[in-house]
Design brief:
Shape: globular
CATH superfamily: Glutaredoxin
Largest sheet: 4 strands, mixed
Strand order of the largest sheet: 2-1-3-4
Number of strands: 4
CATH topology: Glutaredoxin
Number of helices: 5
Strand content: 15-25%
Structural class: alpha+beta
CATH class: Alpha Beta
Radius of gyration: 14 Å
Distance between the termini: 24 Å
Length: about 120
Amino acid sequence: MASEQAEKEGKLVLLSFSGSDWCANCMRLDKVLFQSEEFAALASEDLVLLSADFPSRSKNKLSKEQTAKNEALAEEYNKSGVFPTVLVLSADGKVIGKLAHPKDSVDEYITQLQAFID
């Protein structure tokens, strides 16, 4: 589990709610932030990544088990169903902060994340 790994490694959890195949801002966030080298470097040092995806196309359908896990995360952390939502959590599951969207620059996202980490 992400929280156990974060506790063990002294990291924070980055929980991302996405509609990977229907949400334009989710796709842009993935391209601008999550696929960037800057994010990869920051994440490897300070974050445990946890993704809760809610695809709509049948070809992207998740397993029943994964869907249930994602729905449980949404029930606890994203009751309003806003996509994308990216939260920074402590190892014990408390919300430390929320990433503001949408940004056009990876540097803007990294600055936000760094503020939660420091």
